[in-house]
Amino acid sequence: MSIKQMPGRVLISLLLSVTGLLSGCASHNENASLLAKKQAQNISQNLPIKSAGYTLVLAQSSGTTVKMTIISEAGYTNHADA
């Protein structure tokens, strides 16, 4: 799997888009869970994504949330929920 290069603004835009989709489109938990699963699968197909000193290495769904693991070049691991 090759590392995809993306500008920092694109990665932030992606994270905001996922958050917007999950909170704005689904009115029922079942729909939100399905949407979270699909978004996590879509993101996972493009991993790893390297941007602005960080690498997005994992995206998985948990209920209505997409959990993402981001590693910085400094060696720190961050977990983000969208």
From TrEMBL:
Xref: Pfam families: T2SSS_2 (PF16549)
Signal peptide residue numbers: 1-28
Keywords: Lipoprotein, Signal
InterPro entries: T2SSS_2
Organism: Escherichia coli
Protein name: Type II secretion system lipoprotein
